[in-house]
Amino acid sequence: MVEGARPVTGASPAPDAAGLGRARATGFLVPAMVLILVFLVVPAAWTIYLGVTNYRLTGLAAAHPEVVGLDNYTRALGDERFRTSLLLTLQFVLGSAVIGQAGLGFAIAFALRDRRGPLRRVVEGFVLLSWILPSSVVAFLWIALLDRDAGTLNALLGIPGTAWLLDHPMLSIIVFNTWRGTAFSMMLYAAALENVPRSHLETARLAGASTWQQLRDVVFPRIRGHVLTNLLLISLWTFNDFAPFLITAGGPEQRSEILPVYVYKVALSGGELGFGAAISFVMLLINLVIALVYLRMLGRRKESA
Amino acid sequence: MTTDTATVEPTRPTVAVRHVLARIGRYTFLCAVLAFFALPLLWLATAPFDDTPTVTASLPRFTLDNFRALLDNPYALGSLLNSVYLAAGTAALVVTFAALAAYALSRVRVPGRDALLYGLLLLSSIVTGTATMVPLFELAFRLNLIDSRLGVILILSGGLLPAAIFILKDFMDSTPTSYEESARVFGASPLQIMRHIVVPLVRPGLATVGVWAVANVWGNFLVPFLLLRGPDKAPAAVIMYTLYTEGGQADLRLLSTFSLLYSLPVALMFVFVSSRYGFRFHGGIKR
């Protein structure tokens, strides 16, 4: 209870103004911490254990799972389907997040940078709408759009009979996810571009710099931190995105089977929980690497700010 | 292109031409963007009101009869109620628990606080539902939470809490402590201070977290899809998926009206939030 007498230092919060005391403060923390412990920490830790067992949903190994060491991991490395899935995931993240969402998001933000008024509101409104609608609804909207015989896209292009989801499943989910997630990048870059003084752009333009030169020499150096933040966050989210399952379910013939879909099919449809957990652990490690890079960068920016 | 004073004069026309071209290019680009983002949404606007809906978006022959399909389906309206139940339950749990934790972390020097916050942030970003669907399923199985809506609420709350604590701690840090101090001088107990002073002060923060939690749960497909077995407990996200994947020819009357009804609450929430608070990041993402 001596907390109240302690002086406020720097960014640290004010002293215990309500006289809560350490015991009661701990009590305030307990409910949240218990939920986080049980439903976040335990599952993460359990993934490691399950990943070294031959645990199955049904059959003999369901009742008596055995520890099989690193067998699941060596099996995964030798598994053609796993390696293909990893490659498809890389395509998905690079294509739809890094190129699609970040590229398009920046382009929209840049094109709208000095506009106010209805055009900006309408464009932003539609981009945001595609971001906030429930994923099972937008999944069906895209199935309808890309339908082979009666889809709006084929009707517009005049090429009925083009089976986008069967012939180009990866392209379809990459374009879909670009459409789905561009809003975040657009808003982040719109805010970032407000930090670029308009007079600098004006000067560069009057000096005859092309748009590309303006971007490279004036804009980019000022928003480098935002670009990195953006790329890391959308990569993390795209890597963990389950929505493509709702459109192609990994098919046809596993040609759009990104890692989340692969884990679902192997572990929960196929019942191989142990093997699925090993793959999940690999996913957790990849997430950890991305998140650590992000947090380090955030910390560094705070120091320099 | 080099432009010193000597060459400015002759290049002025080309600069003007380039300026016009850039404008045309910019508008063409924005129109293309608008078409790309609006095109998939057209169907959602037209099909529910078309008397013979197909998967093609087209000008509807107007009717409201399709909405009757919602009443004929045994699960459609019930699933929306289930979604409300899951969203409200999760939001209540997240707001309450996060507010208590954030207040303690903001006002009392709990040992290891910074490490705890850092750990929470790291944890919530790496432990996603997709990466841990196997152990979550296992855990729910052992805790007897399979086919239980409470299980879905608890799991979703666990995932949302770290970020919620973060957002609310920021709110609490920026509210002055002088009100609490004077209330204490007048003999108010800590719980009274919480209820009558802190909660009203941080109400915008609580509302933000509540709306954010509802939006998250409303669209969540994976967790209820993994844990809930029967269609009677399934939320709209799962029923929507079963409507177009199961049982041969999809009923487009039902599908279109259900999509619209299910989308409407989040769309309205978004309109409300953006008209009231402005839906954008100011000056870059919070540092």
Average pLDDT over all residues of chain A:
87
Shape of chain A: globular
Whole-angstrom Rg of chain B: 26 Å
**How many helices of chain B does DSSP assign?**
12
Q: What is the 3D form of chain B? A: globular
Let me know the CATH homologous superfamily of chain A: MetI-like
CATH topology of the domain at 80-277 in chain B: MetI-like fold
Q: How does CATH name the architecture of chain A?
A: Orthogonal Bundle
Which fold name corresponds to the CATH topology of chain A?
Answer: MetI-like fold
Helical fraction of chain A equals over 70%
Based on the coordinates given, report the CATH architecture of the domain at 80-277 in chain B: Orthogonal Bundle
| Helix-strand topology string of chain A | HHHHHHHHHHHHHH
* Annotated CATH homologous superfamily of the domain at 80-277 in chain B: MetI-like
- Spell out the helices and strands of chain B N to C: HHHHHHHHHHHH
User: How many runs of DSSP E, i.e. beta strands of chain A?
Assistant: 0
Major protein interface: A-B, 110 and 109 residues
Major sheet attributes of chain A:
none
- The CATH class of chain A is identified as Mainly Alpha
GO cellular component, one term (chain B): plasma membrane
GO biological process, one term (chain B): transmembrane transport
Keywords (chain B): Cell membrane, Membrane, Transmembrane, Transmembrane helix, Transport
Pfam family, one (chain B): BPD_transp_1
Structure, described:
Chain A: Keywords: Cell membrane, Membrane, Transmembrane, Transmembrane helix, Transport. Chain A: It is a multi-pass membrane protein. The complex is a heterodimer of chains A (about 300) and B (about 290). Chain A has about 300 residues and is mainly α. Chain A has a single domain (about 80-305), classed as MetI-like fold (Orthogonal Bundle). Chain A contains 14 helices and no strands. In chain A, helix 1 (about 20-50) crosses helix 14 (about 275-305), helix 4 (about 80-110) packs parallel to helix 9 (about 170-195) and helix 13 (about 260-270) runs antiparallel to helix 14 (about 275-305). The radius of gyration of chain A is 25 Å and the shape is globular. Chain B has about 290 residues and is mostly helical. Chain B has a domain at about 80-275: MetI-like (MetI-like fold, Orthogonal Bundle). Chain B is built from 12 helices and no strands. Chain B has helices at about 5-45, 70, 75-105, 115-125, 135-140, 150-175, 180-185, 190-200, 205-220, 220-225, 235-245, 250-275. The two termini of chain B are about 40 Å apart. In chain B, about 40% of the residues are buried. Classes of the chains: A mainly alpha (about 300), B mainly alpha (about 290). The interface between A and B is large, with 110 and 109 residues.
